[in-house]
Amino acid sequence: MSHLLRNQGWVAGLFALLIVLFIVTKLIQPGYGSSDFGSLARAVLPYAFAVAAQTVVVIAGGIDLSVAAMMALTSVTAASMMNGASEEYALFVVPFVLAMGFVLGAVNGLLIVVTRVPDIVVTLATLFVLQGAALLVLDAPGGAAAEWLKAMISGTVPIPGLPDNIDAWLPKALLVLVVCLCIIWIPLRRSRLGLSIYAIGSSELAAYRSGVPVARTRVIAYALSGLFAAMGGLALTMSTGIGAPIPGPYLLASVAAVVLGGVALGGGKGGLLGPIIAVFVLRLVRTDLTLLAIDPNVTAIIEGLIMVVVVMFGAFITIRGRPVGATS
Amino acid sequence: MTTNPLLDATGVAKNYGAVAALRNASLSVLPGEVHALMGANGAGKSTLVKILTGAIRADAGRILIRGKQLDVRSPAAARRAGLVPVYQEPSLIPDLDVLSNLRLTGTPVEPFRAWVRELGIPDLDIRETARNIPLAILRVLDLARALAVEPDVLLLDEMTAALPANLAEKVLGVVRRQGDAGRSVIFISHRFVEISALCDRATVLRDGATVGVVDIEPGIEEKIVEMMLGARIEKTRVAARMAAETATAKDRRPRLSVRNLQLGAKLNDVSFDLADGEVVGVFALEGQGQDELFAALAGSIRPAAGTIAVDGAPAKFSHPSDAIQAGFAYVPGDRTEALAMQRSVRENIALPFSATLRKWGPIRMRREQVVVSSAIARLQIDTRAQGEVQRLSGGNQQKVTIARWIAANAKTLLCFDPTRGIDVGTKQEIYKLLRELAGQGKSVLFYTSEMEEVQRVCDRVIVIFGGRVVDTFPVEEADEPALMRAAYGLPRGAKADIGILADVRADTEAAS
Predict the structure, then answer these.
(1) Chain A residues in contact with B101 (beta carbon < 8 A)
(2) What does pTM read for this prediction?
(3) Of A1, A7, A210, which to mutate for an interface test with B (greatest number of B Cβ within 10 Å)?
């Protein structure tokens, strides 16, 4: 139990922060209700996938700068393929785009492992490549999305027997997010592969000596990152109904949420839940600041300050709470 | 012996570029045997271990396990073949808990728990994150994890190095019983006490080749030391300088006095003096605490206990800049630790002293120029490639690291293996330079892994073993056999091992 508290303390703290923010929101805007929560969930969706993509790689001790570009490319690919095509064709498009993300991610990983060029350089290069490729697919925002895909993230989940006013707080977008992340993350956490990802991020030498295939694990981590980014790209197309070739602000947002979510940038520490809650926190802060009619430029400054303060506070707690006699 | 060896490695060789780390090593381990692998620093022990455990690949040679040819490409493959190592540094993943670490290597949990209890840790919390577990316990957990898979051959590299006496005793007992149970253990240790208590046979390496396999029996220590030294033991003391100055050294006030210095498990109770105009050598096998000693004197780690006095006044170094202020300059063996590789020779030399020249405002270029030029001239640094230090040869780079402290007028140099990996000619120049500096009244503390350097450079030499100063020699007495014996913790002049064993046993009992 004490371990659970120690390991999940950060996530619990973030969750408390999120609740506080909801209360603050309600105070600022007494009319804040279920529909606003629904639109928050829809807005968070692409960010959350970008964060998941970044989290996997950071836990493995790397960084992926191509997340946002990957999302843009997968988004325009999906949108242009579905443009004018039948509703059923989208059933093929979705797995195709996901596979594309997975493969491109694996290419990132292979380049890093084979060439031994630092990850930050390789993924910066792929950022430009993918950005260019996205513009080749669609040179301006356009394309279309199947109706059933768009319907998947709008509205709420009708659960029979549940009163409507509670039902209204369960947006479909949130469900899609939870299901997509859980399908991949939970089996991963429980597999040896998941352990290996943590192991190479924590100590590459120790992992190697424990018999972990370091190179293969790294490639798979990047492939999973690509897969999550492709989900993010699809989420963009689903929510806007089109594809936009210029990457959104997802890269820096993903790094910010990873840090805020308690994942060590050095690798090996943290989980997926923390960064996902962190994304909600960051979006909600932005919503609140908008509701308060604060200058958007000041908003950015405040967001940055919050990050620094929270992370510093976390580091302080960690140092204070370290067991006596433990080293490093 | 008629039994077939469990592990049989022959003709193993490994080259790193032009350097031969292993030339012709062989190792044959019988079933149920505890086999010691011995050799001085750089003899190739660690390279052989890395090859056997699949961390690196041999260039030549044949490794048989149970008579079958084995091609170990990775640690995982070695594990599957039944060869499980326990390395000197703990190999649990720091951010995972113990249980996850077991799952990672597919180690069964119950046998692991049983071994942990057997090894003297009754109350291990298996959910604890490895990072929060003290080093000594981690080493034991590593061993328990290896034992739990019941390996054919267990490879222990300096297993007892970081262990307190009570745990070490348990560990040795368990290792001994492994042999009795028909499994083999390869045991690497610098401690003769352990080896004579534990091992059946020993393989001795020298200069990358196996020079002999001996049965462990009373009195074998001397023979092993001889084998490790090889022909060198016959060699007359080439240039044993008579330390004429040393006679007067006693009258001089000590520049540095270290008393009862203690640092974690690595250094306990180190005391010595260093006088002005003196070069004191530090000789030790790898990992006996010399790294920590130099780091403490250079101000990069703080000792847990003990005092350091400079010119008679107590000093506390909490940052390298404190040590530099007190005139202590650290010259590491690894030049990349000390130099800004992409910058020029001049900038590198000027780096430490331009800070003392002026604390604020622009650096006085003219004065810097003069000092730097004189230092370059004095050390005869080859300045053809002075634009970037990384383009200089290793020897010239090392000269730059020394030159900067001459330019900064440091009173004491802490040289940690300064001639590592540089050519003979430059080595001679560095020896000469250190002597010259001593002649000018500066003091030098000189750690070296090459015994002949002791005689060339030092006035006195202290020998460190297991974090203690075990002996101090004037240079005339510091011949290679004497140093080697001291470095392995054998008392001076002793010939029979019974005395040694009784002695050390009494020590450990008193300690525990």
Answers:
(1) 210
(2) 0.75
(3) A210
